[in-house]
Amino acid sequence: MLRDYSPLASAYIQADVGYAQPTQTTPDRVMLDSPATDAMTDLTRLTAVIILAGDGVDEAHRRMIQRGVRLLLVVDQDRKVLGVITANDVLGEKPVRIAVERGMRREEVLVRDIMTPRERLQVLAMEQVQTAKVGHIVATLKQAGRQHALVLECDDKGRQRVRGIFSSTQIARQLGIAIQTSVVAQTFSEIEAMLAR
Questions:
Q1: Which of 78, 82, 136, 145 shows the shortest CA–CA distance to 110?
Q2: Distance CA 142, CA 135 (A)
Q3: Cα–Cα–Cα angle for 16, 22, 26, nearest 5°?
Q4: What angle do CA 54, 60, 66 make, to 5 degrees?
Q5: Which of 56, 73, 78, 98 is spaced 20 to 30 Å from 34 by Cα?
Q6: Cβ(81)–Cβ(74) under 8 Å?
Q7: 107 close to 56: Cβ distance less than 8 angstroms
Q8: Cα dihedral angle (168, 115, 111, 155), rounded to 10 degrees?
Q9: CA distance 58 to 95
Q10: What string of pLDDT tens digits covers the 197 residues of the chain?
Q11: pTM score, two decimals?
């Protein structure tokens, strides 16, 4: 059966050899009226950076630095999305507050303790994103007071999957301008409400 197939020549691997990884090339510059997909990290072309809910917050921070991202998808052992964790979560007061409340060291705080769980995530539909402009995404992030937005799509069986991620930092870099997405308190009562959280 194998008589028509001759073996291929083989060789030894050299030192300092890397490996192929999916790459996505996004335009260096976009305009507000550019297609929104020009500013989206497309997870069909770039591997998502993930972390387990049981990993420590310091590991999450290391992974963000290593991969140059400010958001990790939090997944379970089957790689199902449980939520997200951002650099603001890791570097903000959340880990310290949790540590104090539970009488533990900050290093013992886990991703699950400070992540935004799946049921609290607001997402965008890929169908809308495909016809939207970058300006629509900027307006959406500003209105929500968020730095990131996840994009969902459904497969042919109706199952959802995270297809992409928008980052205000990436969009700002591509636009060449600063984007302020965080909600700023306008009155004393709003400041008090923010402090009470």
A1: 82
A2: 11
A3: 115
A4: 140
A5: 73
A6: yes
A7: yes
A8: -80
A9: 10
A10: 557 887 788 888 888 777 777 777 778 899 999 999 999 999 999 999 999 999 999 999 999 999 999 999 999 999 999 999 999 999 999 999 999 999 999 999 999 999 999 999 889 999 999 999 999 999 999 998 889 999 999 988 888 999 999 999 999 999 998 877 664 444 444 444 444 44
A11: 0.79
Q: Could you give the CA distance from residue 125 to residue 189 in angstroms, rounded to a whole number?
A: 35
**How many CB atoms are located within 10 Å of the residue 103 CB?**
7
Q: The tokens of 189 are what?
A: 């009562």
Q: What angle, 0 to 180 degrees and rounded to 10, lies between the N-to-C axes of helices 134-144 and 168-175?
A: 140
Separation CA 92–CA 90 (nearest Å): 6
Both tokens of 42, joined, read: 């497309």
Task: At 114, list the tokens.
Answer: 């400070």
